[in-house]
Amino acid sequence: MAMIKCPECGRQISEKAPVCPNCGVEIAGKITQCTQCGEVYFNEQDSCPNCHHHAHSPKTTNQINNTQEAAGQNAGNYSTPPVLPQRSFTSEQNTNVTPPTPPVPPKNEVEPESAQKQEKRHTPLIIGFIFALIVCAVCFYFYNDAKSSKEAEAYEFAMKSNDPLVLQTYLDNYKDASQAHLDSITARLETLKRVDNDWNNALVSGSKQALLDYLSKHPDSGHKAEAEQKIDSIDWAEAQKANSMDLLQAYLAEHPNGEYVDQANDALKKLKTKTIQPEDKTLVSSVMRQFFQAISSRNELGFDGCVAPTLSNFLGKQDATKTDVITFMNKIYKDDITSMKWRLNNDYKIDKKEVGDEQYEYTVNFSALQEIDRTDSSKEKEARYKIKAVINPDGMITSMSMTKILE
User: In this structure, which of 44, 71, 311, 366 has its CB flanked by the most CB atoms within 10 Å?
Assistant: First the structure.
């Protein structure tokens, strides 16, 4: 009995074995020995798996065994008597006699086991293939989800931007985006191009009205700040050229946070120093009227709001006080005078001088008429005076002189 390799599992087995005790595949009657290389393979195979030789007259193991049995029997005829079947155990002592081949198990009992074995061998491959498909599907899902999220972020950013380059970049990078997104970006890009065209026209015009029209048409334009800055510059140029109180004040009112606010305030300050404003004249007139009303009514308290505590000069007296003013008032009221009135002619000539930050001192020249009621009708009943006074920023008289006009 010869030992062969199982064609299925490669283990050493007997060539007479009905099945391989290791893997269960059929052996007896199912195998062929290659005449070229001696490799044993299944009858079902067309050629030797080792040398690929095609067997024209395959010699099966059973034929080999039958030949060996015949040779053994012939040799036995010359040396030993025939062996009885019931004494077949004695053949184990004779090396020339081959044991009878056990009955081959039914084919339908072995083939299911072989098919089941092969099915078990393929199961891991099938499972691995299915797992690979699942992994690929998951990876594709996450990749597609990440790509969609990135596109959504880019879309939102582009729709909030006023830069045409940002919108064009989106269209270049996301050509496979949804049609709704592509249409929205395209429409916004066209709008921005129209806005830029209107802006260029306004710049070429260079007029304030063209810029105002642009802002009215495109209130949320990205050029809004630049347009407002140019309008600010145009208004300042006009105010600076005119150098008038009205235009300077108009500039400050229209551009409270303008680029030229400091320059406008400085120019306005200089103009105020040189120019007598209506409020200046009102202040001077009010102070002088209060002073002469106090004299007309002979009211000492009336000087409190218009005469400084100390005067540098009052009717020629240096460092005069309010008491000196009251003395003057009482002095001009003679015994025969029953009443008097001072009428101011409002012919003020005012000079102003800055003595502090927007603090001004006023020097005023004007004329006044003194009307006198007397008991003695032969005496003077009216007189005219030229008056010069200095008024400080607090609206108090700090100096005064009076010169009678002789007629």
Answer: 311
Mean pLDDT of 368-383: 90
The residues near 226 (Cβ < 8 Å, ≥ 6 apart) are none
| Statement to judge: residues 282 and 400 lie in one domain | yes
Contacts of 215 by beta carbon, 8 Å cutoff, 6+ apart:
221, 224, 227, 228
Provide CB contacts within 8 A for 49, sequence distance 6+.
Answer: 7, 39, 41
Residue 172 belongs to a domain: no
Integer angstrom CA distances of residue 95 from 76, 100, 186 = 11, 13, 99
What's the pLDDT score for residue 55? 65
The CATH number covering residue 290 comes to 3.10.450.50
Cα gap 256→5, rounded to integer Å: 106
| DSSP label at residue 96 | T
Do 68 and 96 lie in one domain? The reply is yes
Q: Among 105, 122, 138, where does a domain finish?
A: 105
Neighbouring residues of 284: CB distance < 8 A, sequence distance ≥ 6: 348, 350, 362, 364, 391
89-to-70, 83, 100, 212 alpha-carbon distances in Å: 19, 10, 11, 126
> Is 354 inside any structural domain?
yes
289 plus 389 within the same structural domain: yes
Query: What range does the domain containing 320 cover?
Result: 278-405
In this structure, of 64-78, 171-185, 277-291, the range with the lowest mean pLDDT score is 64-78
Please indicate, yes or no, whether residues 258 and 238 belong to a single structural domain of this protein: yes
The torsion of the CA quartet 244, 245, 250, 255, rounded to 10 degrees, works out to 90
Residue 397 lies in a domain: yes
Band of residue 48 on the pLDDT scale cut at 50, 70, 90: confident
Choosing from 105, 139, 174, the residue where a domain stops is 105
Alpha helices, DSSP H only, in 255-401? 261-274, 278-296, 322-332
CA distance 289 to 163: 67
pLDDT at 290 over 90: yes
Q: What is the pLDDT of residues 131-141, one digit of tens each?
A: 788 888 777 76
Query: Does residue 307 share a domain with residue 339?
Result: yes
Q: What is the mean pLDDT of the chain?
A: 81
* pLDDT tens digits, one per residue of 236-277: 999 999 999 899 999 999 999 999 999 999 998 888 888 888
Instruction: Quote the number of domains for the chain.
Output: 3
